[in-house]
Amino acid sequence: MNFHVMTLFPEMIEQGLNTSITGRAINSNIIRLNCVDIRKYTKDKHGHVDDYPYGGGAGMVMQAQPIYDCYMDIVAKNNIKNPRVVFLTPAGRTFNQQMSRELAKEDDIIFLCGHYEGVDERVIEMIVTDNVSIGDYVLTGGELAAMVMIDSISRNIKGVLNNDISAETESFTTNMLEYPQYTRPEIFMDKKVPEVLLSGHHKNIEKWREEQAYKRTLERRPDLLQD
Ligand code: SAM
């Protein structure tokens, strides 16, 4: 899987994703991270990539030309046909585990990170296949949102997690949140690990976990049980 990211801040994404589990996956060539600086493609002699919005209003808007040229270069250099192009935007479909699993089947995904007030709509219409938000709040830029998506999609790619079962039992794999987890010691500040988990009785443990997952989902996210 190749993740290509069009951004004004490539080092932010590289630093974030080159650590921990995603960092290991990059080092072992299970995933590839290709962050491309949009600013390198501007034809403006002062290196500008943004301008005032037509019609007035607050802030600056990222211009179409550098983004379009950046996109064309990524597609040509990597020989990509009909790529999924994700624009990170609060005005998109909300990202979830189902979308993450679906995107994990792609060979290449190109992300476009906005900054400032947004991006000229014309280039979005020309190259973007998916407008995606990571939640109902506004971030400074799309970089953190792209990192969230790449991290999550990577977990659904074979070989990224040491134990592929993890992705199968986690929250949202079914319509339930995950059950509570415990590790050593057996007693921590008078709080004991539930007896059933020490019993070694796999059927009872499984039953207890299912009950806990249901209880937790009902309490915290009853909306999931209605789907
Ligand atoms: N003016 C835009 C609006 O009201 O929809 C918000 C622009 S925001 C300050 C700058 C950039 O951050 C956006 O272009 C987008 O790429 C990114 N961004 C902000 N919030 C996001 C979210 N919830 N999900 C994904 N990307 C987001």
List keywords for this structure.
alpha/beta, binds S-adenosylmethionine, five-stranded parallel beta sheet, 37% helix, Trp Operon Repressor, Chain A, Alpha/beta knot, single chain, 2 domains, 9 helices
Question: What this model shows, in words?
Answer:
The chain folds into two domains: 2-154, SPOUT methyltransferase, trefoil knot domain (Alpha/beta knot, 3-Layer(aba) Sandwich); 171-226, tRNA(m1g37)methyltransferase, domain 2 (Trp Operon Repressor, Chain A), CATH 1.10.1270.20. It is 37% helix and 19% strand. It has nine helices and ten strands. Strand 5, helix 4 (97-103) and strand 6 form a beta-alpha-beta unit. Helix 1 runs parallel beside helix 6 (143-155). Bound molecules: S-adenosylmethionine. Residues 88-91, 113-115, 117-119, 133-135, 137-142, 145 line the site of S-adenosylmethionine.
What is the structure about, briefly put?
It is built from 9 helices and 10 strands.
Give the termini separation. Answer: 30 Å
The geometry reads as elongated
**Strand composition percent:** 15-25%
The arrangement of helices and strands along the chain is EHHEEEHEHEEHEHHEEHH
Q: Quick one: biggest sheet?
A: 5 strands, parallel
- Unreliable stretches, pLDDT < 50, 5 or more residues? none
In round numbers, the mean pLDDT is 96
| CATH C-level label of the largest domain | Alpha Beta
Question: Any idea of the CATH topology of the largest domain?
Answer: Alpha/beta knot
Write down the Rg: 22 Å
CATH architectural designation of the largest domain: 3-Layer(aba) Sandwich
Instruction: Give me the count of strands.
Output: 10
Share of helix among residues?
Answer: 25-40%
Number of helices, where a helix is a run of at least 4 consecutive DSSP H or I residues: 9
What structural class do helix, strand and pairing data support?
alpha/beta
Q: Strands of the largest sheet, in order across it? A: 2-1-6-5-8
Total count of domains: 2
Find the CATH superfamily of the largest domain.
SPOUT methyltransferase, trefoil knot domain
In this entry the ligands are: S-adenosylmethionine
